[in-house]
Design a protein that fits this description.
- This protein is an alpha+beta fold and 240 residues long.
- The chain folds into two domains: 3-162, Chemotaxis protein chec (3-Layer(aba) Sandwich); 171-238, SpoA-like (Surface presentation of antigens (SPOA)).
- Helices cover 27% and strands 29% of the residues.
- It has helices at residues 3-15, 61-67, 74-89, 103-106, 149-164, 182-186, 235-238, and strands at residues 22-27, 39-46, 51-57, 93-94, 98-99, 122-128, 133-141, 171-174, 204-208, 211-221, 224-232.
- The two termini are 32 Å apart.
Amino acid sequence: MSTAALAAAEHLAASLPVPGLRVLGEVGAEVVAGRSPAAVVAASLVGPQPADLVLVVLDLAFVAEAGGGPDARATAVLRPALERAAAALGEGVLSELVEGDPAGVLAGSGGAGHDGNAAGWTAVFEISDGIAPFGWFAVRRGVAGAPASAPAAGASFAGRLRRIQDVEMALTVEIGRTRMSVREALSMEPGTVVELDRSAGAPVDVLLNGRRIALGEVVVVDQDYAVRISRILDAAEARL
């Protein structure tokens, strides 16, 4: 069993919008066979160390509440947790989540080195709420003998990134927000003080094309305002 895979499972369990979840341990793929899951969500980590991630969930009752209504989609609600899991596996970009059958990813699972190749293991972890299984999380690393299309896809992705890396994007620093009525906005005049939703000394948000990517503090450099980055946010935190 890989330490990184276990860390990914624990990150996922801690990030799911269901309190009290924990990883019980590694199990065989046959444990999942014959079950009737409410959802099976899969994604791929594209990067230096590619991997497949699959989450099998037995009950989706939490999705409506976590997603803000009955129309909430499981893929949208589960994505932040899978992004946290992917971050524990290494650098890369998580693909779009798709719903389907776990058989293709879980087939042949037998723990590290089951196929004689340490890079090709598959690990399956059971996640429980302490009373009953919540579901299972599976990770499969890229295999040296994988189809040629797999590394080609990674190389193609890296090539596309290189083509756009010089494209300029708008970086914005936001010190706070507030809401007001049209009447209040029209009544503003020079000298009006507008209170924001952030206390003095709190870190400011750094946004790239409107998406929050970091926290920082405002400083002065050669008579100009600047921002000193204090923390880079991961994908899950950036959505908060």
